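Problem 12. The chain below contains 229 residues. Write out its predicted structure in token notation.
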Amino acid sequence: MCDPPKINSVASATAVAQGRQRGNMMKRSLLCALMLACSALPAGTANLVKTYSYFSIGGRTLDDIGSQLTKLGPRVKSTGMRHPGATQMAFTTRVSYAERSNSCAIADADVTVKVKVILPEWRRPRKADAGVRLFWDTLSADIKRHEDRHVEIAKNHAGELEDALKATHPRKTCQEAKAKAAEISAAILAKHDRAQMQFDRVETINFESRILRLLRYRMKRIENGRLPG
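Solution.
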């Protein structure tokens, strides 16, 4: 589960100069190969700053653990409820502009996503039941996977935003260029929010079947000696 992102925007004015370089046929071939390779890479090179924090829970039984998660889990603003894990995020966009005599263009754009992932940590009793340990190991791994996916969704959209800003055509004035940048940012961040909510909906629907499948998989690995029992 993720909290709605905070959005910060920083703009500055710069001048950009470009030069041209001659190349022979081999260089053009290498350039084409490089472009093909780059086209297979994920869009955007947005910066990601990620930290983790943990809250402790106790309990000997599954019911105990469930109650502790409900009582002590982080409260998510979008739902007003406590959850087993949460991801808080903030987007910061820095845009520079190149102003000419009759136009103004976005010279560069840099998007940074700062996220804080909050996860549970079980204070495992010394003689905890093996079945409870197995369930907890499965559940906690799934919670971390879920929150890390929220981070991936945020980073992907930050990269998309960065690319979209850089690809914007020049405007007559810098005021118009800034307005267009704000419009693009609002649209892509709204798309990001929808993607996060859709992910949560799908995960909620599939929770029970997913946990049972993961439990069976973990039990099989224990039986095969690939995981400690």
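Discussion. Residues 6-14+41-223 form one domain. Students who got a different answer should revisit the alignment rule from Section 12.3.
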